[in-house]
Amino acid sequence: MNKQLYYEAADELLQNPNVRRMKEFPHHNSSNTLAHSIHVAAVAGKIASKMNLRVHEKELARGCILHDYYLYNTQEMEYSAYRHGTRHAGLALKNASREYELTEIEKDMIYSHMWPLNLTHLPHYKESLLIVIADKYCAVREFMHMAPDVNIDFMEENFKKI
Ligand SMILES: [Fe+2]
Ligand SMILES: [Fe+2]
User: Fold this and answer.
1) What does pTM read for this prediction?
2) What is the pLDDT of residues 43-96, one digit of tens each?
3) What is 3-161's CATH topology?
4) Ligand 2 centre from 2 Cα, in Å?
5) Ligand nearest to the CA of 117
6) Which residue(s) pair with 31 in the sheet?
């Protein structure tokens, strides 16, 4: 796993003011969608690195940063948490596709990250499976107000900026 490539791909997206808007939206009690997305990227990258997986670094990083790009405040929504859970992956994909040229892996990561809640949105790539796992792990920690336990080495600079 080329961490430099991974960091650079995430960093490039994080420079975008629209991506940074995700900071406005609270997420999982103790976080916001931007901090959560970076957390997910750090965890997914760590799993890939520890397991010595051959992954597409750039796509893994970009899929993680954009997976919750749905751009609304869940605390102000009129529909249920379940409805949000089932619809936001599709919405994030729509929003991200409008602004970025996404690869098939990136699209699959965003669309399937809520699997198995969205039972038919099957993950088709290992990068998608990584985000399925990392997203749930991070969500649990955030709901429980636990700080990230990842060594956010290559993400550190971005965390500082937020
Ligand atoms: Fe999500
Ligand atoms: Fe998420």
Assistant:
1) 0.92
2) 999 999 999 999 999 999 999 999 999 999 988 888 788 899 999 999 999 999
3) Hypothetical protein af1432 (1.10.3210)
4) 23
5) 1
6) 27
